[in-house]
């Protein structure tokens, strides 16, 4: 049994853990072709890690955006604590390492011929494919919510070019005094379990200064959520009665929206007028994974827990939010950690070098709730014959208690969160 103290885990989960999380690799002795689809936490990490450890392998990264806008720290734009350029990252560091970065969209995978077709007409051949496409939104599952509606009620849940998050921020700034912000939060599983609640906190942080009589109505399809006690403690201490969270068992599930009249309609027909609406719809794996036949009936991709090879295609390793890896959350840190294992497994077949037969996966997740106020959860996971499992007596969560007793702790965790962000993005893009 592995036992890791909270202090020990915090050390492990810093910059050094980004290396410790990966298996030891030998330098490649033979060339091969690795194609990586998706330039986010999983894909960028995979491309960098592969080129660093296997310099003779051809590594190609396919990503439609010129730069990567991180979902982590996107909520801080809503709170006025970050700007879009501060969370946008260039692929130039990967290019400098020898990764071929193609700005295009992968639209078709042919597992039989080991090829990927791009929107621009190019076809790429691969020996191994790392697929890290992220999520797709289940358009229409909430009646009235489609891509057009998302311009009025932004989801701001996929970084893209950053326009969704800046749209939501602009709407908050333009909201009338005493207005209502409505959030529709999906059931599990979805990207970043604590993300909607950090968003609530950061919106409240902004409104407390700019529009203190405004209200936030958070309609949740679930009856509970990640770090719930910590968030609700922060809301009560920092924002008073500004925030109302409505759980699923109290008619918190939004089933229809009317963007023209700015209405959220609940499961039992209750209509709620909002001045600003943020709809986070149910999710599944991005379309390229589903179209390739890699996803199962859940909409997510089942994978081998030791290698992340897709159950349906052994030469395609699926990492990040698109796969099924419960109890591991769909988080940036998990994508970063598991990318290294996937690369090691994929390139072992190409180079003849051994992969790590007993990998360890890490998650550390910080959440900001206010000015100099943050908390975290950390966990260690291992593969099993049945899938993935928590490592007993590892990780932990920030302590609860009044701010008068824990102010130093909250301030320090806010600093640790910023350091985590800088560390992990350096590990992806430098």
Short description:
This protein is an alpha/beta fold and 430 residues long.
Care to count the β-strands?
26
Annotated CATH topology of the largest domain? FAD/NAD(P)-binding domain
Average per-residue pLDDT, rounded, comes to 93
The CATH architecture of the largest domain? 3-Layer(bba) Sandwich
Judged by helices, strands and strand pairing, the structural class is alpha/beta
CATH superfamily of the largest domain: FAD/NAD(P)-binding domain
* Unreliable parts: 1-30
Can you tell me the number of structural domains? 2
Q: Beta-sheet strand percentage?
A: 25-35%
- With strands numbered from the N-terminus, the spatial order across the biggest sheet is 5-2-1-9-21-20
CATH class of the largest domain: Alpha Beta
**What is the makeup of the main sheet?**
6 strands, mixed
Q: Helicity, in percent?
A: 25-40%
Textual characterization of the structure:
This protein has 430 residues and is α/β, with parallel strands linked by helices. It has 2 domains: 6-64 and 104-134 and 286-429, 3-Layer(bba) Sandwich (FAD/NAD(P)-binding domain); 149-283, 3-Layer(bba) Sandwich (FAD/NAD(P)-binding domain), CATH 3.50.50. The protein contains 11 helices and 26 strands. A 6-stranded mixed β-sheet has the order 5-2-1-9-21-20, with helices on one face. Helix 3 (41-53) links the parallel strand 1 and strand 2 (58-62). It is globular, with a radius of gyration of 21 Å. The two termini are 35 Å apart. Residues 1-30 have low confidence and may be disordered.
């Amino acid at each position: 049994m592995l036992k890791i103290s909270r202090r020990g885990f915090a050390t492990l989960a810093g910059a050094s853990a980004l290396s410790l999380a990966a298996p030891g690799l030998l330098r490649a002795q033979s060339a091969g072709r690795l194609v990586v689809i998706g330039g986010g936490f999983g894909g960028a990490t995979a491309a960098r890690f592969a080129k660093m450890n296997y310099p003779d392998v051809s590594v190609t990264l396919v990503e439609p955006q010129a730069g990567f806008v991180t979902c982590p720290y996107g909520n801080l734009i809503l709170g006025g604590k970050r700007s879009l350029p501060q969370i946008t990252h260039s692929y130039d560091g990967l290019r400098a390492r020898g990764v071929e970065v193609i700005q295009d969209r992968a639209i078709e995978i042919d597992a039989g011929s080991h090829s990927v077709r791009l929107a621009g007409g190019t076809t790429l051949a691969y020996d191994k494919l790392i697929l890290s496409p992220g999520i797709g939104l289940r358009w229409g599952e909430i009646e009235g919510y489609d891509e057009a509606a998302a311009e009025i009620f932004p989801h701001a849940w996929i970084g893209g070019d950053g326009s969704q998050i800046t749209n939501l921020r602009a709407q908050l700034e333009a909201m009338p005094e005493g207005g209502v912000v409505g959030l529709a939060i999906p059931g599990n599983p979805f990207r970043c379990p604590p993300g909607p609640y950090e968003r609530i906190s950061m919106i409240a942080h902004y409104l407390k200064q700019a529009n203190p009589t405004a209200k936030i109505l958070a309609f949740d399809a679930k009856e509970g959520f990640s770090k719930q006690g910590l968030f609700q403690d922060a809301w009560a201490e920092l924002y008073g009665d500004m925030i109302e969270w409505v759980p699923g068992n109290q008619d918190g599930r939004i089933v229809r929206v009317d963007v023209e009249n700015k209405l959220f309609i609940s499961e039992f027909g209750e209509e709620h007028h909002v001045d600003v609406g943020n709809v986070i719809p149910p999710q599944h794996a991005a379309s390229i994974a589903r179209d390739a036949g890699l996803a199962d009936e859940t909409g997510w991709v089942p994978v081998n827990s030791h290698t992340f090879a897709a159950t349906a295609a052994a030469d395609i390793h699926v990492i990040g939010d698109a796969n099924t890896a419960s109890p591991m959350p769909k988080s940036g840190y998990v994508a970063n950690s598991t990318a290294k294992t996937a690369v090691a497994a994929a390139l072992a077949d190409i180079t003849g070098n051994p992969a790590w037969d007993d990998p360890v996966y890490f998650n550390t997740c910080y959440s900001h709730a206010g000015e100099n106020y943050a908390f975290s959860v950390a966990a260690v996971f291992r593969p099993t014959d049945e899938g993935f499992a928590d490592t007993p007596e590892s990780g932990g969560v920030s302590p609860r208690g009044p701010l008068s007793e824990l102010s130093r702790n909250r301030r320090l965790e806010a600093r640790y969160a910023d350091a985590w962000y800088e560390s992990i993005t350096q590990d992806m893009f430098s």
